Amino acid sequence: MSLIITDECINCDVCEPECPNEAITPGEEIYEIDPSKCTECIGHYDTPQCVDVCPVDCIPLDPDNEESKEELEAKYELLTGKSI
Length: 84
Hints:
Radius of gyration: 12 Å
GO molecular function, one term: 4 iron, 4 sulfur cluster binding
Number of domains: 1
Structural class: alpha+beta
Mean pLDDT: 97
Number of helices: 2
Helix content: 10-25%
CATH topology: Alpha-Beta Plaits
Protein name: 4Fe-4S ferredoxin, iron sulfur binding protein
Cofactor: [4Fe-4S] cluster
Keywords: 4Fe-4S, Electron transport, Iron, Iron-sulfur, Metal-binding, Transport
Number of strands: 2
Shape: globular
Low-confidence stretches: none
Strand order of the largest sheet: 1-2
Largest sheet: 2 strands, antiparallel
CATH architecture: 2-Layer Sandwich
CATH class: Alpha Beta
Domain 4Fe-4S ferredoxin-type: 1-29, 31-64
């Protein structure tokens, strides 16, 4: 699954620079995650970096974008051109 930022977001700006895939951008009211770029940091880190740094715990899995580990790995390879 990709991740999603909920409306509990306080726009603290710490998640955006941590995303290795540049999937997080400022939205109209809160930050947003582009599910086509989110790999939950698979290929880069052991855990999603945005979740690790979020002070209000507002970045859960997105139930509307379920993906297996294999699908996330394939997305990483497509985005980076690197194999895992």
